[in-house]
Write a structure and sequence with these properties.
The chain has 625 residues and is α+β, with helices and mostly antiparallel strands. The chain has 19 helices and 20 strands.
Length: 625
């Protein structure tokens, strides 16, 4: 048994990270310390007071562990990584988990492409950004591809030159078809060079070029082409106008300020790249009444820059923070160059910080009501369902549905809602193995048995390896199971749980004669719900989502079965060739439109089998005969 007082005596006087666990062994707090002995002992002193939130956390600590580091900087890096991985309950956390888009130019390729990217990797590509609007990034890439006629395909060049026909972009004059050797590598590289100039903000050459082309097309009475150049010209001007010059030094910097009230804080960032304001963004932060503004700002910096690959040369803050020096050292290490954390006192930079603070205050006041409404739709609605069913601390809900048409290819769906929102990464599909025909109860029995047996097996494997519980879609069990139906479906679920010796509440989502949600079936009785309540709306959304997910899966299987069954009738086309055709073309229409040469290029196909497929789809009809 873990004796806290005894373990406190063993704490070393060294820097490191401490990790607090509750009775369920869940991590509830992670912190760093210059001296583990001094910092961790503070929590357990009767005279120690860090506010209500920390006091509540201390009461839940059942054990703690720690990791020694060589320096405070190493402790900071480790703390950031662990907080990001475990997201402990009592750490001040960002409520937004955003990733920013980049424009990637693949200079490592013989014929480079301009691509959208959510990550900045250490490769031979050149990255521009980060940008705050994914839509604007996609529009810019589309514009660049049109202006410079760059390739968008994923063909491996020059290896694949001449292997396939040029795509539609070549025929509509939006690609120079390097895949056919119609443009040299040197000429293509010149176009990429001009595209990079454009991305660096040098718009004048392309504006002049488009203006000249528009005038020439107009003088030659090619008005359709002139209109096309005019639209491109307008698009370039719009992008150029969005780049507002904010400083003359041409450096990269982030301007960071915050606004807060008793419960919430909003941190606003202005992103300045090459002296231009390229965008701004804001983040909501959960805070406690005892959290000071410098603490919130320091926590924000650690969490935000732990997750973003781009570190600017300078961070302009609203006020001084205690950990400025170690954060500066950490960011410099990440960037590979010196990073400065500063608080401007006068001039343009101070005005920018003030502007960011004003924006943060405006967002906080405007979003307060919006956040409350959203929480009412999600967490509030879940609490309402919990009160109806007399269940406390309801967080994870799983719902199940079965789909079939006259027993054809029965499938099951499992959807997951956490804190009132869909968690699509945990959705699962089940193709029925043991049930044939339209037997919804039998199908549901199989789905639930497979789901929870699988979960129990994973949990046992984790215990055998002495690993902490991983919260995957099967390993983690729900706080409530919601069945699409009434008494019959609920009883099936209860039977499965009883056989597996599991205790999980089960309720049914009951529908009326018009197939609309009516109420919940729980503990052998139907519980009516106010149709205008958020709880009722959440139940309806869960029921509709389970049904949609099952139907979509079933539809995809029917489509594949249709393709498969038609291909069965083609002489000389066996399982291997059917699989190759289905993988390459996906639909019957696509196979029908392919010529013999394209069909013969597939793995395992030869000219004879390709001709058999082609003739099968192009044989004359009865009327033609």
């Amino acid at each position: 048994m873990f004796d806290i007082q005894e373990e406190l005596k063993k704490l070393p006087q060294k820097p490191g990270v401490y990790i607090m666990h509750d009775a369920r062994d869940a991590i509830i707090y992670i912190g760093k310390a210059v001296s583990l002995r001094n910092r961790v002992r503070q929590y357990f002193r009767p005279s120690h007071n860090e506010g209500l939130k920390k006091a509540q956390m201390v009461r839940q600590i059942e054990r703690f562990e720690y990791i020694i580091t060589d320096s405070e900087l190493e402790a900071l890096i480790l703390e950031c990584n662990l907080i990001k991985e475990h997201r402990p309950k009592y750490n001040t956390m960002l409520r937004d988990d955003k990733t920013y888009p980049y424009i990637r130019v693949t200079l490592g390729e013989a014929f480079p492409r301009v691509l959208f990217s959510r990550q900045m990797k250490k490769d031979k590509s050149r990255y521009f950004g980060p940008y705050t609007s994914a839509g604007a990034v996609k529009d810019t890439i589309e514009l660049i591809d049109k202006i410079y006629a760059l390739r968008t395909c994923s063909r491996v060049l020059p290896k694949d030159i001449g292997k396939e026909r040029p795509c539609l972009n070549y025929h509509i004059h939006q690609c120079m078809a390097p895949c056919q050797g119609y443009i040299s590598q040197e000429e293509y590289r010149q176009r990429i060079g001009r595209a990079i100039e454009f991305l660096n903000g040098n718009y004048q050459p392309v504006l002049r070029e488009l203006e000249e082309k528009m005038q020439d097309a107009s003088e030659n009475m090619n008005f359709e082409k002139a209109i096309e150049y005019r639209e491109l010209l307008k698009a370039v001007k719009q992008i150029a106008q969005k780049q507002k010059i904010t400083s003359s030094d041409g450096e990269d910097k982030d301007i960071i300020a915050m606004a807060s009230d008793a419960e919430d804080a909003v941190v606003q960032i202005f992103f300045i790249r090459d002296g231009k304001l390229i965008g701004r963004d804001h983040f909501h932060v959960n805070i406690g009444s005892e959290d000071t503004r410098p603490q919130v700002l320091a926590t924000f910096l650690k969490q935000f820059y732990a997750g973003t690959p781009f570190i600017p040369r300078e961070l302009m803050l609203q006020e001084e923070i205690e950990e400025a020096q170690v954060i500066e050292e950490w960011l410099s290490q990440k960037r590979g160059q010196k990073v400065y954390v500063r608080v401007p006192k006068k001039g343009t930079k101070e005005k920018l910080v003030e502007l960011a603070a004003q924006n943060a205050g405006m967002v906080l006041s405007q979003d307060k009501e919006k956040i409350k409404r959203e929480e009412g739709r999600t967490i509030g609605a879940l609490k309402e369902i919990g009160r109806l069913l007399e269940l406390e601390d309801l967080k994870r809900v799983e719902a199940y549905d079965i789909s079939n048409i006259s027993g054809f290819e029965s499938v099951g769906s499992m959807i997951v809602y956490e804190k009132g929102k869909p968690k699509r990464s945990d959705y699962r599909k089940f193709k029925l193995r043991t049930v044939t025909g339209p037997d919804d109860y039998g199908s549901m029995y199989e789905v639930l048995t497979r789901r929870f047996s699988h979960g129990m097996k994973e949990q046992e494997e984790l215990k055998e390896r002495n690993m902490e519980q991983e919260y995957g879609s099967f390993t983690r069990f729900p706080d409530l199971i919601m069945m699409d139906g009434g008494k019959g479906q609920v009883n099936v679920a209860l039977r499965v749980l009883e056989e597996l010796k599991l205790q999980i509440p089960v309720c049914g989502m009951v529908k009326d004669d018009n197939h609309r949600t009516r109420g919940l079936y729980y503990h052998n009785q139907e519980i009516p719900i106010d149709r205008h309540s958020e709880g009722f709306r959440l139940i309806t959304r869960i029921q509709d989502e389970a049904h949609r997910f099952a139907i979509e899966f079933h539809r995809s299987l029917r489509s594949k079965e249709q393709v498969h069954s038609v291909l069965d009738d083609i002489p000389g086309i066996g399982a291997v060739r059917r699989k190759a055709l289905m993988k390459r073309f996906l639909s019957l229409d696509a196979i029908r439109e392919a010529d013999v040469k394209t069909l013969a290029e597939l793995p395992s196909m030869n000219e004879q089998s390709a001709r058999a497929v082609y003739e099968f789809f192009h044989r004359p009809s009865v009327e033609e005969q």
